Amino acid sequence: MQQYSTQFSGQELNISAWRHIAIGISNRYFNKVFGPNGSDSGDEFDDDDNGDSSLVDSIHDLQAGHGSHIAGLIYARLFGQGELGTMRSREQFRKVSMQWHRFFGFGAEDRIERGLGAGVKRVRSIFDAEREEMQRKRFGKLHRMDVRGQLKQMMGPAAEFRGLQEPVIRAVARGEWPIVQITPTGGGKSLTFMLPAFCVPDGMTIVITPLVALQNDMDARCAKMGIDAYVWTSRGVQRAASLVFVTPESAVTKGFRIFVERMHGQQRLDRVVVDECHTILQYSKTFRPQIGRLGETLQDFGVPVVCLTATLKPTQEKALFKELKFNPDRVRMFREATTRRNIQYRREYRVRVNQEGEEEGEEDDAVEQRVCEIVRAWTAAHEHGKVIIYGGTIKRVERIGAILGCMAYWRGAGNADEKARRIEAWRSSEGGESGWIAATNALGMGIDDPNVRLVVHAGIPRQLVNLSQESGRGGRDGQRSESIVVIRRSEREEAQWAWDDDVVEFAEGKCCRREVLDREMDGSMERFGCIEGEEVCDVCYQQQGIRGEQEEEEAAEADYQRSQRIIRQVETERILQVMRESREVSEFEDILAEWDGCCMVCRIDGRDEAYHSMDECPQKGLKIWDNMKQGIEAVQDEMFAKKQFAKFSACYECGLPQAICKQWEAASDDGRLFKRVRGGRCQYNGLLVRIFVAQRVQAVDSWAEKVGKMMERDGIDIYKGNQMAKLYEWLGGLVEWGGRAGGGIQASRICQVVTRLNGR
């Protein structure tokens, strides 16, 4: 039952669920308790004072081992049904109520229930209809709103849209999703969720933000603009609001899911916004691993999703779509040039020298010394403006903080209150020495201070995304700001392996620094230097020497229906994928049984006599035999000796999923934990690798093409770096084969590859 329910419906049934389903089927199609067919009399208003005790037990209930009263109290109860009483007693009570309605002239004749026999559509609850109508009205109100007028009302008469703000908000109003908006730092991405919340305050938008500081900052900004918002905590008051801020870790918890389900039931939830969505690509097994569950959680929420960021490379788009489980063909992209016109970019190399001009001492000292000189000199020349110094490491941040006598900030710098105090003290200053702060990349997001005029990096970040994000803390009001990177000379050599290629290119300065940023961060190949109206970078400085009423309602209805179709289509696609993968698992087991005991060489050669060992093969010594033997040994060494299999993905002796290998048995009801079977042995030891190599030897070129496409779909660039290392790491990766909630199994990706290549 579990196997076929998963294969044909995408959901796994357990014993408890089947008991409820069996009683529900019996009630609806056999006992007829839902309509007049269940009564002995044809008159719906016949009195029946005896209640459930006068009802004869159904033979269908007796067969299940209980009477009809017990069946009604326990099994197949409807949502909204009270804790006491059964459906039969409820129907009797309803008849009495309708008699009173008829007596008082409340129109009971128009509401006489016609029953719900087999094949008859269930009458919707009036509350469901009212709540859906509320949602429809909210959608229509947002669809018709004067976005420019509402913007001025929210932010003041001088407010105007910038960049792609207006088209993005209009796309949100039309119900388009998923939406990904890439706007430069300080470009006003938060308007995408704040303006709809201001215009339609009775709806609810969930905003997932990566940092607590960013939540608190946005909450304060919402309060100033009169938007009902609050920060969700598991122990706090959990209420509906126009905007609800939550961290990714909290968003995937059971408590927040229950909150979302309640909001769904009230038809309050309109959309989910993922702010700073590029951080989803930065999680790992040791760094914020819960973020990896966010894509599945967003699918479960079942509402439109909007993603916001300032730092998403075009080459990272596929990886983001994969993590969030978006269909790439459906994503509505809004990308602006993220390079800031008002920031001047500059780089300095530094090395320590003695009085004779000879190199000596630690280069780190020279970098820190130069950074402090730059900060002091800049502050002496500017009466107002704040400074952020990014040190890269905690130790360097502490040293710079001590030298300058300024506040130091990193993730572990005290508790949340202490960190908030430091930030508030720094933000409240107008400039001078009190406007200095040394920090790690923990301050790379969440700070929206318009008065930052200088950002200095002591050492260059290893990823260009971080450099762009952190330098973007400056000049958020559109006024001039400087971004200076001070680098050790030895970093030029280290950068060849420790830094991304684009960071190395930015640091070397062989071309305009904006040219590197535009190409890598925006995919723009048109820039050849800084242009008029931009702060000139140091490279270019050197080179130069210096967008009635009935029609509107119809359009709103059409967009609403299209949005709902997309929601249903996404869920259907997810179920079909689970069903397809469930069938793959069964096919994989058939492949193992079919190939077991075969000589791989004779098998792929199409020989009738193939059931013998390779050592007994009549083709031993031929090139095909040698290629097979060498390939098996090489893959065995890479996958097993070098331990490429991810944790829980396989039996480390045979490579098969623990759910299949007879050396293991289930240790939990969900099939996720296993324990060794005493005396158990792998029934297909070494077979997985032999099949994998045989498929490759049989058709090398087509095998490479197909596997390459599979890797590209998973967001892996097969044209950069060590291709074989990437291949084996990818083959050993953990996959939820058949869906985690659909009765699937945990396996390594090599099992999927073998199955999908079989017979192709």
Automatic annotation (TrEMBL):
Coiled coil regions in record: none
Reactions catalysed, as given in the entry: Couples ATP hydrolysis with the unwinding of duplex DNA by translocating in the 3'-5' direction
EC number of this enzyme: 5.6.2.4
GO process terms (BP): double-strand break repair via homologous recombination
Highest rank taxon of the organism: Eukaryota
CDD domains linked to this entry: DEXHc_RecQ
Ranges of residues in domain Helicase ATP-binding: 170-330
Pfam family, one: Helicase_C
Keyword Hydrolase among record annotations: yes
Entry keywords, A to Z: ATP-binding, Helicase, Hydrolase, Nucleotide-binding
PROSITE patterns: HELICASE_ATP_BIND_1 (PS51192), HELICASE_CTER (PS51194)
GO cellular component: chromosome; cytoplasm
Domain (Helicase C-terminal) ranges: 366-524
Keyword Methyltransferase attributed: no
Gene Ontology molecular-function annotations: 3'-5' DNA helicase activity; ATP binding; four-way junction helicase activity; nucleic acid binding
PANTHER family on file: DNA HELICASE RECQ FAMILY MEMBER, RECQ HELICASE, PUTATIVE (AFU_ORTHOLOGUE AFUA_6G14720)-RELATED
Family of this protein: Belongs to the helicase family. RecQ subfamily.
Name of this protein: DNA 3'-5' helicase
Organism this protein belongs to: Thelonectria olida
